[in-house]
Amino acid sequence: MNAIPKLKLAIDIYLGSVKDKHEREFQQLVARENNASGISNETEYFIADIEYTQPGLKARFDLLAIQWLAKDRSDGSNCRLALIEMKYGDRAIGGKSGLIDHLEDIAEFFEDKEKFKPFLSEVESMFKQLRDLGLIRFGTAGNENVVKLAQEDLEVIFLLANHNPRSVSLMSELNNIIVPKNIDLRFFVSSFAGYGMHTQCMCNLEKFKELNKLFETNMIAG
Questions:
Q1: Cα–Cα distance, 13 to 22 (Å, whole number)
Q2: How far apart are CA 129 and CA 186, in angstroms?
Q3: What does the alpha-carbon distance between residue 212 and residue 133 come to, in Å, rounded to a whole number?
Q4: Across the beta sheet with 45-52, what order do the strands follow?
Q5: 90-94, 122-126, 167-171: which has the highest mean pLDDT?
Q6: How would you class 115 by CB atoms within 10 Å of its CB: exposed for 0-12, middle for 13-18, buried for 19 or more?
Q7: How high is the pLDDT of residue 220?
Q8: pTM
């Protein structure tokens, strides 16, 4: 048992520096904060899986999440799927596998109902397994309400970790985004600090562009 912290540190160093897996490390952090931390029962998103893929699927989903609003916890029928794409730094914001590329792949998948509907059932099953194993923390009272995901409602969230506010690459990509029909595109902005996810922390495209401009202006003024 005494060796576990040292082993974890060795893995963190290996993933962070040797294999340059910072994004995976932050994915794990998001999952831990929203699923099994001291504030997870207060958040409104639960992570069902990390780096999900399947045969024939163009996109790989960084995080599969279930949006379950705090006001609806007594009823699991008002939940919806949230696909979270995480970017660590600014290297992969544009171009192949950039924000626009991922958004287009997700939109194509969402339109294919023969694939999308079974996918929703799979996510529901993943979430149930996590709950059955005690890996979702709901507080002392727990929560046994069955979750059912809306079939015609999809949220896509871009989570941009450690963006450099001096870089113009993000705004360039944002200005070229066309939000697909029937997809609720959001950008996660933390509640002061941390990765606990709430609906109040989700900006639409226009609000996020305004926020990014504010950062750029402050950098210039400073």
A1: 10
A2: 27
A3: 40
A4: 45-52, 61-67, 79-88, 149-161, 183-188, 202-203
A5: 122-126
A6: middle
A7: 46
A8: 0.86
